[in-house]
Amino acid sequence: MMQGSVERQAEEVARLIAARLGVKAGSPDAAVARARRKLPARIRRAADELIQAAAMDRHPRLRLMVDRNRTDRAYRTCMRYLRPLGARERRRAIVLDALSAMGRAVFGVLVLVIAWLAWRGPQ
């Protein structure tokens, strides 16, 4: 991995956080800090790890202590969550959400009708 690539990865994660979660921040540190509650814990930890590695990567002696495999894993974890869905998957998700909402509504009406019939008793 080239020098400064950890910092580029952190900046890309911050850009995606801003785009996907609507967080406005100037630096990757601020973007992750502002998106704290909007990110799942696993993604938050990976982003924090990436930000810390980027800070260590700026210092010549600390750069040697950065575990590249671990930062790559953290980067992939963040990207997997933050990468936006494609158009086909987004449409599919919308249709499935609508169908599940209609199914819940029909189920609720059926339960109410059965409860009403049971309450009225046989005639």
Quick structural gist:
The chain is mostly helical and 123 residues long. It has helices at 5-21, 28-34, 41-57, 68-82, 87-120.
**Helix proportion of residues, in percent?**
over 70%
Count of discrete alpha- or pi-helical segments spanning 4 or more residues: 5
Ranges where pLDDT stays below 50 over 5 or more residues in a row are none
The run of helices and strands is HHHHH
The whole-number mean of residue pLDDT values reads 88
Q: What structural category arises from helix and sheet content?
A: mainly alpha
Largest sheet: none
Q: What is the assembly state of the chains in this entry?
A: single chain
Transmembrane segments: 93-119
Keywords: Membrane, Transmembrane, Transmembrane helix
SSE order and pairing:
Blueprint: H1 5-21, H2 28-34, H3 41-57, H4 68-82, H5 87-120
Helix pairs in contact: 1-2, 1-3, 1-4, 3-4
Structural overview:
The protein is mostly helical and 123 residues long. It folds into 2 domains: 1-84, no CATH class; 86-123. The protein has 5 helices and no strands. It has helices spanning 5-21, 28-34, 41-57, 68-82, 87-120. The longest helix has 34 residues, at 87-120. The radius of gyration is 23 Å and the shape is elongated. The N and C termini lie far apart (80 Å). The relative contact order is 0.11. The mean pLDDT is 88.
